[in-house]
Design a protein that fits this description.
The complex is a heterotrimer of chains A (about 280), B (about 260) and C (about 375). With about 280 residues, chain A is an alpha/beta fold. Chain A has helices at about 10-25, 45-55, 75-85, 135-140, 145-160, 190, 265-275, and strands at about 30, 60-65, 90, 100-105, 115-120, 170-175, 175-180, 200-205, 210, 220, 245-250, 260, 275, 280. Chain B has helices at about 50-55, 85-95, 110-120, 130-140, 160-170, 190-205, 215-220, 240-245, 250-255; strands at about 10-20, 25-35, 40, 65-70, 75-80, 95-100, 175-180, 210-215, 225-230, 235-240. Classes of the chains: A alpha/beta (about 280), B alpha/beta (about 260), C alpha+beta (about 375).
């Protein structure tokens, strides 16, 4: 059986694009959409896949990453899906991609205007753990009632001396909507602020799409006397020497020996190709 | 007691009515509330007094009548016609609602400090230290030990919960507080302490309040004026002392005389 | 020297080949045919069609085979296939009144017009493992009952609840006003949900979940005092009325089981009391599901009937958000996906906090 370009029928793509347009017009606002059952499980990226399928065109160059790596099994599976249903060129290089679908990370290589990043979102609603009811959270967004989120931050600081949220860190988009930026580490939050690329967020199971248009302000929640801060490592990447990037921790022997390496595999590989070793550039 | 020099009441209520199917919740209820004044609504259960309170706060939708509130900005606000967003904002800033069961008016899963600080943060306070400072301040004012600021309300006694709820409401300096049986379910000695506190706060802060209670002793201690309700209607209204010492309506007489004298 | 692990692609390919081999099992054992599954595992096929929202016995049998008997996986396969199908039109409402009845029972009257027709049911079997089934029969299939043993089902069996309705004893069903009918396969679920969307959600919902919810209502969590008014199983015609023709055309017959529960009566001093209803409808013979669906339908109607919801079974958001096993399965199992970046962030925090409290640092 042959499928339509990018699997979805044109009517469905149009419906999703309408939702995307609405999302772009109201940055950070969750637009409900008629999510379809896809050949991958809910929870495994169906939202991201539907968004990508609706915006991808024959001249696009697609990169797919999971946890920052192109070669993790789910990234491979999704890349294959699009290769099979679109025939579009794929790449591992961030700078060559026009369309990047990602799970849980933003690439270290700075994005540029004209690129689209599609995020896979498990739980779109930032208030969900504080208020389980959808009817109530919709009201809270409409009325800009975000006090309860600050209560949560207050409690964290009271209990731990700092905010305990380390990924999916809540942000205010365009000074108005509270948004959950998908489970990216808070390390990546600063990349969202005034990003030159278009950022699209798809939640298939929860049936929501939201967006941050290029150059939009995205501010992580904090208190004046407890400002937002990101993770730090006291050592560089063990392969390419990079500093100021997110590092994965690997256990390399059964004595508990550890190696810290770049989570962004493309970034790391290219630095190594340019001659940068564990001590940096030779 | 009229407010000093004010021409308009803080809250004007006319012909307030609410039905539950064929049952009358309240009918043709009217009163004026002046700044700094405490109005008590007394009656037995089923008299409609809680219905009146719920209509004022918007917890239930009134079927008829007019409720006009003069906002801090000097605007006359038609409370029954207000859209939900404006109503919710008002209830978090200029108004306070103290529930009979303190748990209904608190977040039991977060610390006392967070409970008190929430309204401030909802209105834009973004300095942890200052929010915490205000919370400490208010805990002291409602006579909760400041060392309890990080404790969960689950660990508080009934009286403390009620005082915490009051602090949570007063932190934004509301002008009008609605209270439903604020001392209900508390031990007599705890009640007395709470009433004392409330009376002090009302005077110090110049609060206006509508207090619903079935307990005439509470009414006498806190309220300047009373409405006596029965079957959804107001049967008598007047100064507290007058109504309690010299009731005119037969039902009011019955109510007053049936109170056990200590 | 650490070398970054590559080969995710190869690993996936190998996993697929291994899966195919496991699915086939021992090559000495004859391979399952779709006909065998469709015929002899008919109730599995019925469930997959119902929750897959697609009536096609052969496709459902294929899904069951491909999923190695994991019915939720099979339902997922059918749903994904359904996404690719074009939408030609909407049928007229099924007229279960004109069902060719194979089974029809009622618990509220001892006898009724048309009689109690037992049909093929497990209900009165003794649950003793039949070791006769362990080997394949060589002397031909067991003889079905003779014509004299089957009661002749009259052409049209009046519904029991209609009999109550004529006396005004039961609330009327909401008449179809011909407005927009919600479709969860096209639009997202929003709250409050209309009854059309609620019923669709329940029809597609996981049998186990609905069974548990229905069971809970019987045990007091939102009790609505149910009686099985009528359960009927049989073939009904599916009709389409294309605009160009202007009249209805029968395009298929499908087997469905319909359950009507008669529930707690409602009334007051001024309104005479009437029984209330719950409704369940499934493809094929998934009777247990139809009954559970009717119990949950009634529980979720509490708002419409002026009852205070007191229980999760009456909580529309709770029930309808968690009834879909394809969604649930996906999200539960997504935990198997790599989460090491999120976990790394947590590790950093926990280590910091512990260091702050003077706990031991890693070597």
């Amino acid at each position: 059986m042959s499928y339509n370009f990018a699997y979805l029928d044109e009517q469905t793509k149009r419906m999703i694009r309408r939702a995307i347009l609405k999302a772009v017009a109201v940055p950070g606002y969750q637009v409900p959409f008629g999510s379809r059952e896809m050949p991958l499980s809910y929870g495994w990226g169906t939202g991201g896949v539907q968004v990508t399928a609706s915006v991808i065109g024959p001249t696009d160059v697609l990169k797919v990453i999971d946890q920052g790596a192109d070669d993790t099994t789910n990234a491979v599976s999704i890349r294959h899906f699009f290769a099979r249903t679109t025939g579009v060129a794929t790449t591992t290089r961030t700078d060559e991609a026009t369309l990047i679908q990602t799970r849980h990370r933003i690439p270290e290589t700075p994005l540029r205007p004209g690129q689209i990043v599609v995020f896979q979102v498990p739980i779109p609603e930032p208030l969900r753990w504080l208020e389980p009811r959808e009817v109530e959270t919709r009201k809270m967004h409409a009325l800009e009632e975000y006090g309860v989120m600050y209560v949560r931050l207050y409690e964290d600081i009271t209990r731990h001396g700092r905010v305990a949220q380390t990924y999916e860190y809540p942000v205010i988009v365009n000074g108005r909507y509270l948004m959950r930026p998908s489970p990216i580490p808070k390390f990546d939050n600063p990349k969202l602020d005034r990003c030159p690329a278009l950022l699209l967020f798809g939640a298939g199971r929860e049936k929501r799409i939201y967006a941050v248009p290029p150059w939009t302000s995205v501010k992580s929640l904090d208190f004046d006397d407890h400002p937002f801060e990101v993770e730090h490592w006291d050592r560089p990447c063990g392969l390419c020497g990079a500093r100021g990037v997110f590092l994965d921790e690997l256990i390399v022997d059964d004595k508990g020996g550890r190696l810290f390496i770049c989570s962004d595999t493309d970034h790391c590989v290219r630095r190594q190709a340019a001659g940068s070793g564990p001590e940096g550039l030779a | 007691m009229n407010g000093s020099g004010d021409e308009r009441p803080l809250l004007g209520v006319r012909g307030l009515a609410k039905r539950y199917g064929a049952q009358v919740g309240c009918l043709d209820v009217g009163f004026d509330l002046w700044p700094g004044e405490v109005l008590g609504i007394v009656g037995e259960s089923g008299s409609g007094k809680t219905t009146v309170l719920n209509c004022l706060s918007g917890r239930v939708t009134a079927d008829g009548g007019r409720v006009v509130y003069e906002s801090a900005a000097g605007r006359m606000v038609d409370m029954l016609g207000l859209d939900e967003s404006a109503r919710r904002r008002l209830l978090r800033s200029e108004w306070g609602v103290v529930h009979q069961n303190a748990r209904d008016g608190l977040r039991m899963g977060v610390s006392a400090g967070a409970n008190v600080g929430e309204r401030l943060m909802a209105l834009g306070a973004r300095h942890y230290g200052r929010v915490r400072g205000e919370a400490l301040d208010w805990l002291a004012r409602v006579e909760i030990g400041q060392d309890r600021i990080d404790d969960l309300p689950e660990t508080f006694s009934g009286g403390m919960l009620q005082r915490l709820q009051i602090a949570r409401n007063l932190v934004t300096a509301p002008r009008l507080v609605l209270m439903d049986e604020p001392t209900g379910g508390l031990d007599v000695s705890v009640q007395a302490r709470l009433l004392d506190l409330l009376r002090g706060l009302v005077e110090d802060l110049g609060l206006s309040a509508v207090i619903v209670t079935h307990d005439l002793a509470v009414a006498r201690l806190l309220a300047h004026r009373l409405l006596v309700m029965r079957g959804g209607e107001v049967v008598e209204a007047g100064l507290t002392d007058q109504v309690l010492d010299d009731p005119q309506h037969p039902y009011a007489q019955l109510l007053v005389s049936s109170v056990l004298q200590p | 020297m650490y070398v970054a692990v590559k080969g995710g692609e190869r690993a996936i390919e190998s996993a697929h080949r291994l899966l195919a081999a496991e699915r086939r099992g021992d090559p000495e054992v004859p391979e399952l045919t779709l006909a065998q599954i469709e015929q002899q595992l008919a109730l599995a096929v019925d469930r997959v069609m119902t929750e897959g929202s697609l009536y096609d016995r052969e496709l459902a049998a294929l899904a069951v085979k491909q999923s190695r008997g994991d019915l939720i996986e099979a339902i997922f396969l059918l749903r994904a296939y359904r996404t690719t199908l074009p939408r030609l039109g909407t049928s007229l409402p099924l007229d279960t009144d004109r069902m060719v009845v194979e089974r029809r029972i009622s618990a509220i009257f001892k006898d009724l017009p048309g009689g109690q027709i037992l049909g093929p049911t497990f209900d009165y079997t003794h649950r003793l493992l039949d070791f006769g089934l362990a080997s394949v029969r060589t002397d031909g299939p067991p003889a079905p009952p003779t014509r004299r043993e089957i009661a002749e089902a009259p052409e049209r069996l009046p519904r029991v609840v209609d009999l109550l309705d004529r006396e005004g004893l039961i609330e009327g069903e909401t008449p179809d006003r011909g407005g927009h009918v919600g479709d969860l396969t096209r639009e997202p679920l929003t709250f409050p949900a209309g009854r059309d969307v609620r019923l669709q959600n329940l029809a597609r919902g996981d049998e186990g979940f609905l069974l548990a919810m229905g069971y809970a209502t019987q045990r007091g969590y939102g009790r609505n005092h149910p009686f099985a008014g009528e359960i009927r199983l049989g073939e009904v015609a599916v009709e389409l009325a294309p605009e160009e023709l202007g009249f209805a055309v029968e395009i298929a017959t499908i087997a469905v089981t319909e359950c009507q529960m008669v529930n707690q009566f409602k009334g007051s001093a001024t309104t005479p009391p009437q029984f209330t209803r719950g409704y369940g409808l499934v493809f094929g013979g998934a009777e247990r599901k139809a009954m559970a669906m009717a119990l949950v339908d009634r529980a979720l109607r509490c708002r419409d009937l002026g009852e205070e919801p007191a229980s999760p079974t009456q909580d529309e958001e709770f029930v309808l958000s968690h009834s879909d096993n394809v969604e649930a399965s996906g999200f539960v199992q997504h935990l198997k996906l790599p989460h090491y970046v999120d976990f790394q962030s947590e590790l950093v925090l926990v280590r910091d906090l512990r260091a702050g409290q003077g706990a031991k640092a890693p070597r």
